[in-house]
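testing teh design pipeline on a random one, pls ignore if ur not involved
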C-alpha cells in the first residue's frame, strides 16, 4: 500500500531510495488542512526526519526523532488552518552528525 501511495509523488533528487514524500493536497483553499507524508527506508544512520513548510509570511516545522533501522517506515504530519500563500515544503532525513542524508522539495498552493 505504501508503494502505491508514493507512486504518484514527484521525482526526488539523489537519495530518493532513502526518502520519499508527498504533500496532500498540493492545491487547496485557506484555511487549509494539509498532510505531509514520508516513507523512510530503514537504516542505522537515520536520526531525524525534518519537515518544513514556509511561504515567507508563514512558517511551520516538525522534527521527528528516528531510532535508526528500528524506526517506523511511514510518517504523517498534518498542519491545520494554514493561511493563503505559496509554500515551499522540504522533507529532510538527517544522520547521526546532523548531516542531511536525503532531501525532497515540494510546492503547496493555498488560495484565499
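output:
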Amino acid at each position: 500500500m505504501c508503494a502505491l501511495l508514493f507512486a504518484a509523488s514527484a521525482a526526488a533528487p539523489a537519495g530518493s531510495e532513502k526518502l520519499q514524500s508527498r504533500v496532500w493536497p498540493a492545491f487547496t483553499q485557506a484555511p487549509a488542512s494539509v498532510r505531509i507524508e514520508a516513507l523512510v527506508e530503514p537504516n542505522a544512520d537515520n536520526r531525524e526526519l525534518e519537515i518544513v513548510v514556509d511561504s515567507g509570511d508563514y512558517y511551520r516545522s516538525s522534527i521527528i526523532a528516528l531510532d535508526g533501522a528500528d524506526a517506523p517506515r511511514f510518517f504523517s504530519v498534518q498542519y491545520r488552518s494554514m493561511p493563503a500563500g505559496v509554500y515551499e515544503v522540504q522533507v529532510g532525513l538527517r544522520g547521526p552528525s546532523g548531516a542531511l542524508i536525503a532531501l525532497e522539495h515540494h510546492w503547496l498552493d493555498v488560495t484565499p
